[in-house]
Amino acid sequence: MPGMDSVENASMFKRITAKASLMGGVPCIRGLRIPVATVVGMVADGMTEAEILDAYPDLEREDIHEALRFAA
Domain of 64: which CATH number? Predict the structure, then answer.
């Protein structure tokens, strides 16, 4: 996954945060304790957007889309 240190990456990903004080710097969705890797893994396991949103009510559809762009 790309690093979050560059200005370019920070401007590309408005919904992805990576802070040492939150989850040890693991990239998460909007400061929530939901790692990008968790969301990407759920998609890879075949879960639909609706199923992911049901499992994590704090997530929004755009969070899922941005997590996939970040992972790519």
Answer: 1.10.10.10
Domain coverage including residue 64: 7-71
Q: What are phi and psi of 54, to 5 degrees?
A: -65, -40
pTM of the model: 0.83
Q: What is the pLDDT along the chain (72 residues), one digit of tens a residue?
A: 445 454 445 568 999 999 999 999 999 999 999 999 999 999 999 999 999 999 999 999 999 999 999 999
Q: 18: which strand partners?
A: none
Which helix (H) or strand (E) element contains residue 57? none
